[in-house]
Amino acid sequence: MRSNGVIVDEQGKLNNFAVEPKMYVQANPRTGFTPYAEALNGRLAMIGFISLLALEAFSGQGLIGFLSSL
Length: 70
Description:
Layout: E1 2-3, E2 6-8, E3 14-15, H1 35-59, H2 63-68
Antiparallel strand pairs: 1-2, 2-3
């Protein structure tokens, strides 16, 4: 017997946990080896590479030399 989204069994006990949540599936997953993830990884790699070039230009040392002088 069903009333207001909850289920009452044969003995008259209320079962609040019988209502299942609505499930949905994303049409375009955003995890794994997707074009979105690959583009994001590429952009982050470009930002990191340019940051290392800027660090070397401003400090006059590479990354290892800069970190060892701290």
